[in-house]
Specification:
Length: 502
């Protein structure tokens, strides 16, 4: 399995071969040609070198062959952007999640399903932005709560349903009446809960109280960092996103990873003991002083190298002495300032800028950029991005999702042999054994939508990177929030939100 389309005419190795010791990338070394733009030569090198089929840290994984952008995890299936996970299915942007499925942005939690934006939860279902909760269903912005259903903005509460407190005995009786093991009952309860959520105030932005001088959305335990989006344990950072593993310092325009990353600039998916990395992508682990590099591992002091392993003082994958390297590197930088790369739209790329969009291996609409910064085909092409109208084939279904039993108790393992038609997109999907066992453990019914539609629904529930100027619905003071003015939510500034709900 590969993340690259067969139509992308590049050489692809399976993970064991790419990470093996039979090659290191110097076999594809090129001499620098001062008459040509340097990025043009990197592009030529990139088309010659072999790529790993998946971008995961393969040597740290166990039984997780069908996941991507993954490290230090085991027994996972179809999860992405994840670290330190175990027995997790169909989930994204994770750190330390176990025995869970259909989650988005989950940290240090266990036995969760259908939830987004949570930390240190146990048995939390179909809930948003709730931390340190146990046995909570269809709730939003709840903290330290146990045994709650359909609740909003509660703190350290227990045995509540739609924010109404019940005795333990009353709660148990109502819980039984709600039939949370039934697909039909869950759909009804979800509609009621989301309607109830919308009547209650939202906090200006989502984050925790351990931030110091921070702006952004979904930023936690960070200091002196601005305009972050899904950032954990960052210090002195700006315009960073998807930094999920501690820690990251002194970085800017950085997207993806962290894990002891320092001085990262204009780079994507670099991390795990990374220092002073610029204009680079997919480099890990133990990397230092890289510029304009891609898919480097354990590399130090390299410039313009692609798919290179365990090497230092290389340019275009060619080995130099330290003195030769430093001298040639400075010459190339001066040449890049005078002789830029010109893309097919006529835009010039000088030294100090990231790679041109046309050098990406992925069409814009097939990348996760589409989730956070959606574009039409015309917009993407106008900006130099690629686009693909190719659709993956879908095998004929053997049953309709509408025919699935209402509860998991009524579903036997023969479901593993069925190909189910999604109720939304009509494409086919299957239930895998680990997923089925987890649904049984959680007493949840088999989902009626395919994994892609379920993932789309989760991302639709999560706020996007943009920030908007609005006014607090209570005090009227200006606020800076990810909720656009036209969405109709009641938004409180942090001060008023804390005064009312903490």
């Amino acid at each position: 399995m590969s993340m690259y389309s067969p139509k992308d005419k590049i050489k692809v190795y399976c993970s064991p071969c790419w990470w093996g010791d039979s090659w290191d990338g110097t076999e594809y070394a090129m001499d620098y040609d001062p008459t040509r733009p340097f990025l043009e030569q990197i592009k030529e090198l990139a088309e010659k070198t072999p790529y790993a089929a998946l971008e995961s840290l393969y040597t740290s994984l166990k039984n997780s062959d069908y996941s991507n952008a993954l490290a230090w995890s085991k027994n996972c299936y179809q999860i992405f952007w994840a670290d330190y996970c175990e027995n997790v299915y169909y989930s994204s942007i994770l750190n330390g999640l176990k025995f869970s499925s259909d989650c988005l942005r989950g940290w240090e939690s266990e036995l969760c399903y259908g939830s987004i934006g949570f930390i240190k939860n146990y048995r939390t279902f179909f809930s948003d932005q709730s931390d340190s909760c146990v046995d909570v269903w269809f709730s939003r912005n709840c903290y330290g709560c146990t045994n709650c259903i359909g609740c909003v903005n509660l703190r350290n509460a227990s045995h509540c349903i739609f924010n109404i407190k019940y005795s333990k005995e009353e709660y148990a009786k109502k819980l039984k009446e709600m039939r949370l093991d039934s697909w039909e009952s869950l759909q009804k309860l979800e509609r009621q809960a989301h309607e109830f959520w919308f009547t209650k105030p939202y906090r200006e932005y989502n984050g925790n109280s351990l931030n110091l001088n921070v702006t952004g959305e979904h930023t936690y335990s960070s200091k002196r960092s601005k305009e972050g989006y899904i950032v954990n344990y960052a210090e002195n950072c700006k315009w960073c996103q998807l930094i999920t593993v501690a820690s990251t310092k002194d970085s800017m325009d950085y997207s993806g990873w962290g894990n002891n990353a320092t001085l990262i600039y204009e780079s994507v998916q670099v991390g795990e003991n990374a220092n002073n990395i610029q204009f680079s992508l997919y480099c890990t682990p133990d990397i230092f002083n890289l510029r304009y590099c891609g898919w480097n591992t354990a590399g130090k002091n390299n410039f313009g190298c692609m798919n290179l392993k365990r090497k230092s003082y290389c340019i275009l994958n060619k080995q130099y002495t330290k003195e030769e390297y430093e001298q040639l590197k400075e010459k190339i930088i001066e040449d890049m300032k005078k002789n830029p790369y010109i893309d097919k739209l006529g835009k010039k790329f000088f030294f100090g800028e990231f790679f041109p969009p046309e050098m990406s291996r992925f069409p814009y609409n097939k990348s996760n950029a589409m989730r956070f910064f959606p574009k039409t085909k015309e917009e993407a092409l106008k900006q130099g991005h690629g686009w693909s109208d190719e659709e993956n084939p879908s095998p004929p279904a053997t049953m309709l999702a509408f025919a699935l039993p209402d509860t998991i108790k009524e579903t036997d393992e023969s479901i593993l042999n069925e190909i189910i038609e999604c109720t939304s997109c009509k494409r086919s999907y299957r239930i895998v054994k680990g997923e089925f066992d987890l649904l049984r453990k959680l007493s949840l019914p088999v989902p009626r939508e395919c994994p892609k539609c379920r993932e789309n629904n989760r991302f639709a529930r999560m706020t996007k990177p943009g920030l908007y100027h609005r006014n607090c619905a209570k005090c009227g003071n200006p606020i800076y929030t990810p909720y656009p003015p036209e969405d109709g939510r009641i938004i409180y500034c942090v001060k008023d939100y804390q005064a009312e709900f903490l």
